[in-house]
Structure formats: structure tokens, C-alpha cells
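Quick one - inputs below.
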Amino acid sequence: MKLKQVTAEAKLLLVGIPVLLWTIIPVYHMFLFAISPRDQATSGRLWPKDPTLQNFGHVFKQEHFYLNHFWLQLGNSLWIAVAVGVITLFIATTAAFAISRLKVKGGRTVMNLALFTYFIPAAFLAVPMYKTMATYGLLNNRWSLVLAMVTIASPYCIWVLKQASDKLPWELDEAARIDGATPLQLFRLVYLPLMVPSLVAVGTYSLLLAWNEYLYGFLLLSNEQHLTLAVALGNFLAADDSPWELLMATGFIYALPPAAIYYAFKRYMVSGLTAGAVKS
Amino acid sequence: MASVSFRNIQKAYGKVKVIHGIGFDIADGEFVVLVGPSGCGKSTLLRMLAGLEEITGGEILIDGKVVNDLESKDRDIAMVFQSYALYPHMTVRDNMAFSLKLRKADAAQTAQRVADAARILNLDALLDRYPRELSGGQRQRVAMGRAIVRDPKVFLFDEPLSNLDAKLRVAMRAEIKALHQRLKTTTVYVTHDQIEAMTMADRIVVMHDGIVEQIGTPLQLFDRPGNLFVAQFIGSPAMNVFKGTLRHRDGQAFVEAQGGLWPAGAARGRHGQAVHYGIRPGDIGLGPAGRGIAAQVVVVEPTGAETELVLQAGSEQLILVMHGRTTARPDEGVGLLIDGRKAHLFDEGSGQRID
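Output:
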């Protein structure tokens, strides 16, 4: 290796290692708690004296007051996240297609409004959203959280998909039109297949946004059997003697699906499916 | 197969008019090339014919039927794009079959037509590949295949060869021409390259600033350009043109310019008229100093079969192309021998040809 390459690599490592540690340490901390017996959880050691998987057993068997509805709540989280992902994807894809490819009138306004929503923090909208859901009698119903999260996720997803759509060569649409495609056929047969990488990225984003949501879940759902696991986790801290090792074990389990999703879809996050469409 | 007619076609983007009333007819089976510098409106005209641009004014007819309000897909046309516009997620076979599938054509018949087109274009071995796995020339052929499979009334080509390298361009030029001779489908072909226009067209439409400058066969445009723009646009190297004053002497016309009297054939125009004098590089003969019009050799460029010379006559630089080779050397004095019947005269004000 030449000196230049060495220094370039060293610079990257200099940035990379702190970032890696910054990310890993809290996760490791959580893992440490999760495999520690109850009396050793806060011992401050880098590796527990008697590591155990018992905590996970407690969680899976719902053997604690806070864990009475673990599986139900995990199911709620999954149901809500998938619903938000699917609905947001549908709204954002159709909107981006209409604005970017069909050039519908008012498209620019929609885009500007979508951007504008990001000037208002989601937390500001929590109370109005609560009032709205109350008006429609949706409080303590899983759909209230789904609708709220779709509302929050859609503008960003529309924005991202519109940008991605704009990069598809316009000639493809024209060629398809001449070939006899209706707008719906264009959408289904040409647009969607080419947008797959962006769709996966946006779908993952909205799904995980809902999966990780705490504030809105906390506000809109109150019945234990309707809670998402994220909110249920928060309830662990309601008492003075919180079972930290169980909290962390549950949290660790809750963090696994997002990690798995990222790993499974990483090839879609960076992809060049449009290679070969037009001369570049 | 069909005829195409443009009737007083106009196009405006907001207040900006880009096409100012164009009208001409294309006969059934004809290969017509629209040529002109970029921004002249040739692509816009083609796209209006394709149904990809709205028509601001006038009528377009295909096979005698006004198609202004028809969707692209209902005009029975096929278009080959400069960027090929192949569907990247489909194999060559699926790309070519796409339009037939949309029309819900019979599967066996679709397969047959794709196979036929592939054979014509030598794509048999590539049918299961994806566009990204093909070279530029192969992609271009797939784009043509996609058009052929449709068996449309009219083929439209929008600068199809611009993205290819020079050698491939010449090969594809011949291929497209051969294809037309075989299929005899009415073809409208847009290019900015006058050589492509000259070599391929049955008739050329020269466009400039949203109007038609001249329509004619390649040799008509070359031999009798209707105005100064066409004269300078068609032909390579370009025609030598300079200003002068028209003189009549003994029934013959001459142009007084650059300290010489340039022969211009039989008397025409008006004595004393300010004109542009034009002479093609191949129509100037090289003679010894003292004969014809005096000039000096500036540069000699042998290309093998032909030799190109840059000459200085007065303050004007001229290009001369001769077959074979020359012994002329730079800075040498020579005489220019010109057959006046080969000279072109254009009015200085209007630029129109003087006959």
C-alpha cells in the first residue's frame, strides 16, 4: 500500500471507530443486562460472573406482572408496523407516480405541503391528533395508531419516492405510452419494478418508524391488551423496583426484528437496477 | 403502411412559438429525414406526430385520418429513441414482446413475430439477456426490434445513432436503410447530422428556427440549395460562401469579390446586385498560378483517396477538395479554375437562391 492509501484508510478508521463504539456500547449494555442474573445486573462488570439466558425464558413464558401480555403486545407491534408500512407505501407510491410521472396539476403544491409538515415537530401534533381520534371514537383502537403513524410517515415517503421517480428516464414512459400502455399498466409493469429498491427503503422506514414509536402509542392506546410492546416497555419503569434484567431482555428481543430487516434488505438500499435503460 | 401529412403545424410553449406553420406530405413507404441544427424544432415535430407533444395549431394526418386527438397508442406508430429507452427489468425478448402483450395478442403469434424480428436484426442469441448486458449497438438493434414487432404504419426515429461511436454509426446507418428497403414502412427520421440525412433519405426536410427551409431529394438539396441556409448546412465540407457584387458581361454572370471575378454561369439576377457567391469544395479545380483566380495554399490535408486544401483568396479562406493527390505546397501560389455553371448565387438580403 502506498502512503497515501494508508493515511486515507487511517482517517476513515479514526472516524469509523468512535462511531462504531458510540453505536455498539448502549446495545452491548442492554445485552449485558439481559444475560445477567437479577442480583448482578448493576454490578458494573464488563461480563457477568454467571451469564444466563433465564431472563429470556421469563419473557417468553410471560412470567412477570409486566410481561403478562408479552406475546399479544409483540403481535400488536407487528400488526401496527406492517399496516403502517403497507398503507404508507401505497399512499406514497401512488402519490409519487401521479406527481412525478403523470404530472398531475397541483403536484408541486402537494410536494411543498409535504415538506412544510416537517417544520412542525410530531410532538406538537400529539394533542390535536388525540382530539381527532377521540372525535372519531378511535381511541384505544389499533387503527388510531396506524392512522397517526401513516400521517406522520407519508409526507417524507412521498418526498423520497418523488425524488427517486424523477430519476427514472422519461423516455421509458414515452416508450411505454407508444407501446400502448395505459397509466395503470405503466405503473404496474414499468414503474413499480424499477422502483423496487426505493420502495423497500421507504417501506422499511415507515415500518420501523411505527415499530419504534412510543409517544403516540402511549397517548392513543391505554388498554394493556392493545398496547404495543414499545409502550409496554415504558411501563416497566412505573414501579420503584423495576426488573431491569427483564426490561433489557425484552428490549433486546424488540430490537432484533429491525436489525434483521436491515440485514435482509441491505442489498436493496444500494442498488442499480436501472443500469442499462439509457446510455449513461 | 401509410402516408403522413402535416398541415400548417404550429407549436408554442406558453408564449414562445417554436414551430411556425409547417406543412408537407410524406408518401406511403417513403423514408423522410428531418434535419437541422439543434433547436430547429425537428424533434418537436416528430414528437407531435408520435402524440408525445400537444399540437398547438394545424393538423397531422396519418393515412388520411386526422390524429390530433388520438393517443400515441392509437396512432399505430413505433418510435426508436436516442437513449434506446429499453425497459431495464425485462429481457430482450420481453422488451420486444411488450407492446403485443399489452394488446393481448396471441402468445404463439407474439413469439413468432419476436423470433422473426430477432432474425432480421441478428438478435437471436441475445433474446434472454437484459439490456444492461448489451453493447450500445445491440441495444439500438433491440430498440429497432421493438418497433418492427409492432408492424406499425409509421416508424419514427429520434436521433437513433447519436449515442454510438463513429464506426458503429456508419454500420447502423446501412442497417436501418436496408431494413427500410426490406419492410418498406413509411419512416420519419430525425437527425442533426446532414451526412445521415444525405445517405439515408428518400427526401430530406431541412428545418431551421421552426420553419421548413427546403424539401427535396438529397441530390436536389446538394445541387440546387434553395437558400443560403440550406447551401451551408448540406454538404461536407461545407460550401464556400462569400459576399460580392453581381456583374453581367456578354450574357455571362460574374461576381466581383476578393479582388477577382468569379464566374457564375449564365446571366441571372440584376447587374450590381449584392449577392452571396457559393461554390462547393469539390467544384473548384486547381491550376497553375496565373490561370483562373489567384490564390495561395495555406494547408494541404491528404486523406488518401482525396486531398483537402485550405486556400487564401483575398481575405477569404476557401476549402478545395480534389480526388487523388497534389504536389501543391503551403505558401505556393495557385490558380482556381471554376466552372460557372456549378456556382450558386444567393441574394444578400433575403438569402434566396438566384436562378
